[in-house]
Amino acid sequence: MTIGKLKLTNSLTRKKELFEPINSPKVGMYVCGPTVYSNVHLGNLRTFISFDIINRYLKFLGYKVRYVRNITDVGHLLDNGEDKISKKARIDKLEPMEIVQKFTNDFHNVMKTFNVLPPDIEPSATGHLLEQIEMIETLLSRGFAYQANGSVYFDLIKYNKLHPYGKLSGRKMADLINQSRTLEGQDDKKNPLDFALWKKAAPNHIMKWKTKWSYGFPGWHLECSVMSTKYLGKQFDIHGGGLDLKFPHHDCEIAQCLGSLDKEPAKYWMHTNMLTVNGQKMSKSLGNSFLPWQLIYGNHKLLDRGYSPMAIRFFMLQSHYASTLDFSNEALNGSLKGYTKLANGIRILKEMIYPKHDALNVNAALINQISKICDDCHNAMNDDFNTALTIGHLFNLLKKVNSFYSKQLSLTDINQATFNRMKTTLLTFTEEILGIKPEKNINGHNLLKFLLEDYAKAKATKNYKKVDLLRQLLAEEGITINDMKDFIGWAYNE
RNA sequence: GGUUCCGUGGCCGAGUGGUUAGGCAGAGGUCUGCAAAACCUUUUACGGCGGUUCGAAUCCGUUCGGAACCUCCA
């Protein structure tokens, strides 16, 4: 066996571990989704593309994955205690649910545009208020929470006596207490580190629900604990999110789950790294973030041009999810060219058929080489979903395909089984696992065929004026004509 | 200050003890009416210093530089 087993980096242990699901072949995966008070930006997109790959690859390996990705539609507070969605609703004079719907729609459009598969369940915080209230009650009854002025807070000092708080991010309570910052409206807390489970709403607050504690709303961390538990059980396999959620959000989730259920919620924690611009994290507050649409259409002052969604997806997959990825025109241009090369190769490969022949010239070395590259692709994905390395191997395979196409290598040198494996591997990894799908489709294949025949005739009669004209006309339609040794080929332009 | 991480060739970006990552760009070649595409060959490399080792980009120490988190963030 030359193909190994799946390993992934577990943020909880900081080690690369063999992936062993709790109830194989079932796999439960929870990923923190967006807060829908504005458009998702490119950095958010990177995270969701990364988990899309993980979802796709786990399914490819035959696991029965239940992928849950939430929509946060309440509970994210600003420094002054106002809810992000409430604030946007107040400014735009809209119902909070109109804000939520608008940006949820945008989020879904972006996901679809970038070929991100939808999750199996996409729960929202406001749809799970009863469950959240129940968890608060459990925490209160177990003594890990306390009421103060209509709000309920998680008692971290008490919790920390039983379970170390901050183990995911490597923080210690003593250090945290020394460094905590005083925020507005936190006078009710026993300890500044305690976080809200339920927050009493100010009179002008629009999003609020009646409970025995107050008219109020749930704290942000609570929804993820509640919804992951509800749909995946007390313990599930993978919990993911952006690196910036590791602390405090994910440490708080662990505290809520352990505090109410006595179980570690997730076996493996996975964190995706940040997209950077000139070495700095892309974020809304720094003003260096791009919207996906701006990148597609090229309408941003930092952009030289627009890039197609698949070129952008390819760009992101050329790095590992746990590394930062720096964003620049130069890097994007490089990826665009690489992507175009891959897309053209895929088109050629789809039309390539193994010829009928007497297999006399079988080249064992070539067969071994091709099968090794196919193994390499699997092993690269098995190594913590290393898409960058996988793409490297796919290009090695692509070279073979192109060599067969241009007849620099002959298909009669390999047997049918090798041909089939080469074809299946390249197509499956590119389209199913990496989710890179063809963007351009030529309508009017017959017309193209006719023009290429005409072109060939013009060439044969050395009518170069016509030859050049046909080349130019087709170039304007996005097609490059390639004169091959004994036939006329074509490819997509960038 | 605490926690975590990074520094690879012109650009992006894998690799973690010995053997070509890959893409883009550059050079040469095959092919070509000229091109283009493709393929082949090829230049530029592991921040500095010290250590471990037969051997280090990879391990250890140190130093310089950069980033993220500690406030909402994917």
Written description of the protein model:
This protein has three domains: 7-272, Rossmann fold (3-Layer(aba) Sandwich), CATH 3.40.50.620; 280-433, Isoleucyl-tRNA Synthetase, Domain 1, CATH 1.10.730; 445-492, no CATH class. 46% of the residues lie in helices and 14% in strands. The protein contains 16 helices and 16 strands. It has a five-stranded antiparallel beta sheet. A hairpin with a 2-residue loop joins strand 12 (275-277) and strand 13. The structure holds one RNA strand of 74 nucleotides.
Write the layout of secondary structure elements.
Elements: E1 7-10, E2 15-18, E3 26-31, H1 42-60, E4 64-69, H2 84-92, H3 96-113, H4 129-141, E5 145-148, E6 151-154, H5 156-162, H6 173-179, E7 196-200, E8 209-210, E9 215-218, H7 220-232, E10 236-242, H8 246-261, E11 266-272, E12 275-277, E13 280-281, H9 292-297, H10 309-317, E14 325-327, H11 329-351, H12 364-382, H13 387-405, H14 416-433, H15 445-460, H16 464-476, E15 479-483, E16 488-492
Parallel strand pairs: 3-4, 3-10, 10-11, 12-14
Antiparallel strand pairs: 1-2, 5-6, 6-7, 7-9, 8-9, 12-13, 15-16
Helix pairs in contact: 2-3, 4-7, 7-8, 10-11, 11-13, 12-13, 12-14, 13-14, 15-16
The structure holds one RNA strand of 74 nucleotides.
